Amino acid sequence: MSNSVKVSEFDYESDDEGNLVVTATLRNESDEAATVTLIASVTAGKGKNEREVDQSEQFELSEGASADAAFTFDVPYTRFERNGGLDLEVHPA
To answer: Which InterPro entries match (predicted)?
Structure first.
């Protein structure tokens, strides 16, 4: 059941090139296996310089299992840190 798969932790940092890296841990809190897609949406900047970028990855999680995801965005970390937003959504695959 995909509604039992949740993001249990997340973080963001800069990679060696100064780009934004988002990490997240998914946890299947049910007693059934689930296949889900994690969508990471990032916005950075303001006004006409605002930029929105999405990335996704599919996961198959057995009951009670966890999985780690990492997304590297072509968005400067400093720009995201000043005027950015992050949304992580779990959807049935």
So the answer is: Ig-like_fold
